Amino acid sequence: MLRRSSLPSVDPFLIWLVTVVAMASALPARGVAAGWFGVAADLAIALLFFLHGAKLSRAAIVDGIGNWRLHGLVFASTYGLFPLVGLAVTGLIGGVIDPRLGAGLLFLTLLPSTVQSSIAFTALARGNVAGAVCSASLSNLLGIVLTPLLVGLLMHSAGAGAVSSWGSARTIALQLLVPFVGGHLLRPVIGGWVDRHKTILQPVDRGSILLVVYTAFSAAVVNGIWTKVTVPQLGLLLVVSALILAVVMGVNVMVARLVGLTRADAIVLLFCGSKKSLVSGVPMAAALFAPATVGMVVLPLMIFHQLQLFACAVLAGRFGRSAALRDAAIRVPQGEDQAAHVAAARGMVIPEACMPGVVANLALLGRHAATLSGGSD
């Protein structure tokens, strides 16, 4: 039987992002139109976070909130390991890349983790979904405060050109945190409707980001972004983004083994601790940086976003197949009684003389399946 390819198909959202950047490059919003697009983008992001709050189940948070060791490790990866890697990388390439692109690389390492894709990949890999919900949601809530603080602390000291101020934290809180909390408080009223219409609400997620990206790149194009970003610099961004992702994932795998996390929790640390949120990052960049530089700052984040989706899709599929093989090994009948019972259920009778050989072959099959699945947790 032919083995199914583990490579994921191209994310349609990537095509939309490229299309929107092309539109902004050809027909950027200018003057009064740019102002209206900015207002529309702010309202769309507020609606997006309102719906995220309404979709967040308190039961899922309660189920996963007690695993503080796991949440602490995810937090340490998101707001400790990532910034350290970002500072090291941007320090190494600072002399060969545009400072605004370097700022974007450092900025993406200061962002919170994703929510929806982290949970989706954890579920696909058969990890601790309740833990992923809690870790990813906590990361995003804390990020509304922590990211502006880290930008103010690290990006100025690194000479990255950030124009952050503590007032930006208030702007972000009003645009992101207040709608999120409002939506969550209204979940008892609107939660059922939101849960029933997830497929209808999905365009709000992506449409909001596309609108903000168009607005940001319009301003960047007006200020000559494509005369400043070269093809070699884009290639360098791709390589450096892949390096950052590989280092963080590798460290998280080693940490999970060192502290003895179960397989289910190790999957949460791998996926929640190695992702950065485009949904949170784009509006935060708009609040933290001058409009003329936002397009260049979010460009590394857009590249990193697609890399992380690709890598996590491959790994989640592999882990899911491994778990399925392990489950299959558990279901292999063992011993004469189980073998006879399964055979009888299928209308078969195992001759007494054949039973020892059947039992031996089933035991061998179970061991092979366990080996292929990677053994115990």
Short synopsis of the structure:
The protein is mostly helical. The protein contains 16 helices and no strands.
Describe the structure.
Helix content is 78%, strand content 0%. The protein is mainly alpha-helical. The protein has two domains: 12-320, Na+/H+ antiporter like fold (Up-down Bundle), CATH 1.20.1530.20; 332-372. The radius of gyration is 24 Å and the shape is elongated.
The averaged pLDDT comes out at 80
Binned strand content? under 5%
How many domains? The number is: 2
Question: Structural class, judged by helices and strands?
Answer: mainly alpha
The largest pleated sheet is described as: none
What CATH calls the topology of the largest domain is: Na+/H+ antiporter like fold
Count, helices:
16
General shape = elongated
Unreliable stretches (pLDDT < 50, length at least 5) are: 1-7, 157-161, 373-377
Number of strands: 0
* CATH secondary-structure class of the largest domain: Mainly Alpha
Rg, Å, rounded? 24 Å
Approximate helicity band: over 70%
What series of H and E elements makes up the topology? HHHHHHHHHHHHHHHH
CATH architecture of the largest domain: Up-down Bundle
- Separation, N- and C-terminal Cα atoms: 28 Å
List strands and helices in order, with pairings.
Blueprint (H helix, E strand, L loop, with lengths): L11 H15 L4 H25 L2 H7 L3 H26 L5 H10 L7 H9 L4 H29 L8 H20 L1 H10 L1 H25 L8 H28 L4 H10 L5 H11 L2 H41 L3 H11 L9 H18 L5
Keywords:
2 domains, mainly alpha, 377 residues, elongated, 16 helices, single chain, Na+/H+ antiporter like fold
